[in-house]
Amino acid sequence: MNSAAIPASGVEITDSRARQLRDDFPILASTVHGKPLAYLDFGATAQRPNAVLEAEQEFLSTHNAAVHRGAHELAALATGDFEEARETVAGFVGADADEIAWAMNATDALNMITLGMAAASRGRGGDASAPLALGPGDEIVVTEAEHHANLVPWQELALATGATFRWIPVDDRGVWSIDDARAVVGPRTRVLAFAHVSNVTGLIAPVAELVELAQSAGAVTVLDACQSVPHRPVDFHELGVDFAAFSGHKMGGPNGIGVLYGRRERLAQLPPARTGGSMIEVVEMTGTTFMDPPTRFESGTQPVSEAVALAAAVRYLDSVGMSAIAAHEEELAARMVAELSALPGVRVLGADASVPRSGLASFVVDGVHSHDLSQFLDAEGIAVRGGHHCAQPLHRRLGITASTRASTYLTTSSDEIDRLIDTVSRARAWFGVA
Question: Taking the model in full, what pTM does it have?
């Protein structure tokens, strides 16, 4: 990795700094329809800096081999890189290395939890897994604002176990509060699953209060950290959650890798959702025993080069400074909310500009479908997301089928926000709704 290309840590991200950082991401120099690319779709997937691209290429060119198997030199080097990556990523989120397991993505990690709990509910794992078993009379609680990845698996777990599926409702803005959670979480609650940051409204959940509420009910907490780990400082030990999940591709890392975090005692209780090679201890024709966590959750061929690249992404983000990234994004979000809300016929979802949110804004333009607006923006070189953002229940509650989402990151500068606001304003006239 070319460390000379990595900026100093913790420097405030001004417009000039954001443009400087943009030079580290080769794709951001692209043009779209003859216009400079303004990439405002980081909530869907982040672009990758040179440091990440180079790290994976270097590994594949020099150390590529199967890990935890061969006795030859390349296998030893690859295994060392693989486990060093685990330590790097764990440290980034305030965890110990044996508390994170690699998954295909965050959705996969969340399914590893729910499928493991389903197995525990069938008696798999015996007394050791009993604390994660569910049955009739137990309740699983999510929020109405959840991404489908943190909603559908819990619905399936409820169906598989006979537990009751409940949710914390949102208000007319699409947000919810700790008081709303207290009205739903009760003595029968066994799971409380929620997003740290909403991918639609940018709401930052009161994690500490929710963990305290869940613990008072004896419930397990599961955090969808997809929109928080890439964008703000996160320490899972400090937050106190039992499980968490996040994806590599949303933080400048590669596709095909995600992270399952679990407190050490919780991972020990969780039966593996997938079985096969690599995660076994002893295999006989009459039965099999499994390795200790986290290895027991990593069956088959591991995502080795992806883990190495994700660790490079972590080092890059650390060098920029997560607090600086969070402050930069919150400032951009407040501006987007204020200026979009000031446009006639434009409705921004979530709280107003006075309430801190992560660096995104989802909005509706009266009389213009989000897909049409997204295409209009694309013609001007502005990449945004149009649709329900894998949050259909939230959109349905708000009386809409879709919205347009602009999401920022460390490379976003105010001139890109200027282009967004100006183009949305012009779109109303172009579509004849001004």
Answer: 0.96
